Amino acid sequence: MTETGLNLTPLHALHLELGARMVPFAGYEMPVQYPMGVMKEHLHTRTRAGLFDVSHMGQVILRGPDAALALERLVPVALAELLEGRQRYALFTNQDGGILDDLMVANRGDHLLLVVNAACKQADLAHMQAGLPELQVQPVTDRALLALQGPGAEVALAALIPGVAAMRFMDVATPEWRGQELWVSRSGYTGEDGFEISVPEAQVMDFARALLAQEGVAPIGLGARDSLRLEAGLCLYGHDIDTATTPVEAGLTWAIQKARRTGGAREGGFPGEAVILRQMAEGPARRRVGLRPEGRAPMRGGTVLWDAPEGGTHVGTVTSGGYGPSVESPVAMGYLPAEKASPGTPVWGELRGRRLPVTVCELPFRPSTYKR
Amino acid sequence: MRYTEEHEWLRVDGDVVVVGITEHAAEQLGDVVFVELPEIEAMVAKGDEVCVIESVKAASDILAPVDGEIVEVNEALVDTPALVNEDPQGDAWFFKMKIDDLSVLDDFMSEDEYKDFLG
Predict the structure, then answer these.
(1) In a domain? residue B112
(2) What is the CATH architecture assignment of A12-57+141-231?
(3) What is the ipTM of this complex?
(4) Topology of domain A285-364, per CATH?
(5) Which domain, by its residues, includes B42?
(6) What is the DSSP string of A318-351?
(7) Which among A40, A223, A297 has the least Cβ separation from residue B57?
(8) Does B23 contact chain A (CB < 8 Å)?
(9) pLDDT of A113-170, one tens digit each?
(10) Considering only CB atoms, which chain B residues are within 8 Å of A325?
(11) CB atoms within 10 A of CB A264
(12) pLDDT in tens, B52-67
């Protein structure tokens, strides 16, 4: 902790050494950008490889008999079939079908490893302890978490750990580096191929330096992380999804496998099942959409959307938006009534008292390059 | 060159004042992706929001440093907002103003005073 009450990650000194501009984020002092700047950091990740410190995120181990099946009580996701060495995206839902957090769940043999959002981790722990009393819920407090993302990620990581080249998207493995276990998954949150790597705290400084010494690897801050995930159409918890949005409204039904849907082998049995299964059957009243503002002015989260250039009705709100360095135009996401959610529909975003035209579009803005 | 506490620079060019943002301001803003300029011939009062600058991080305004009339704007910034980061105190001027009394510029900081202000 600093005197400001913020937590520091084990790489804090490295960020300062690299000239990062530090900002408070989810209770941590984190690098928002390095001297390269957000735009170049974004483009560097899309063309080479970016190293991100995501140690603020929560890592949690779940242990116990049938842990995967037990965890299904809290998520609308099929986990019982998740093979050892595989990972899946999941959502904690509430009784109203709202989203408490989004997370990754990996089957690591004798336990599950969860990665949850920094701002939600205490609430998630309490939620699991209350909802899964038969399991051991163990926060991992002695490991840092790195993400290495971009087309150069495989070569850079394989230079340190040759085995990772054989991993496919959403595989997890436990290779060793200098005698210590790394927990590696082939995943990330930028739309690029890449890896997330959990590293023992005592070793992470050396490991991060070894990665940064590889050709084409640069440190990337939270600013570019946000524009990368936005172009990839990925939700930011607290902005694009929250307790007032359901997975169906958010367009995340791909994360609800057949086994948990109506007629599936383990239909329902998660918080908010009535709302979620009904919305899946009947269609939701509103949907998350991609939005392309015309012109160059970015429309950020909170921008009000109207169905007419003047008069008309307030039909929705931008939940996150900004400039997309790879698509070279402003990009945004938000919620609109289902009848306004088809690609090509015109709406208007209110910016500084004026309504500017916006077109509903497909997500993502930029196709992902995962190695499936 | 004179400087405001809002990190704008003012340069007298003949009988008009050229206005831009300082290197410090450009660096703090980060990569500029959008610039909106005022209307030519607009009469503005000191403190009016006359330009909008959006960077990858946030939106901010340029305020009119003095009362006067906007006589020219730098259209190049609309097509190439990145100029603001490349040459903030040169090619990336924002607008030119006609003012009644050029001596009001003496109220603003000199370069040394601005450096002290930045600390």
Answers:
(1) no
(2) 2-Layer Sandwich (3.30)
(3) 0.86
(4) Elongation Factor Tu (Ef-tu); domain 3 (2.40.30)
(5) 2-101
(6) EEEEEEETTTTEEEEEEEEEGGG-STT-EEEEEE
(7) A223
(8) no
(9) 999 999 999 999 999 999 999 999 999 999 999 999 999 999 999 999 999 999 999 9
(10) 56
(11) 15
(12) 999 998 889 999 999 9
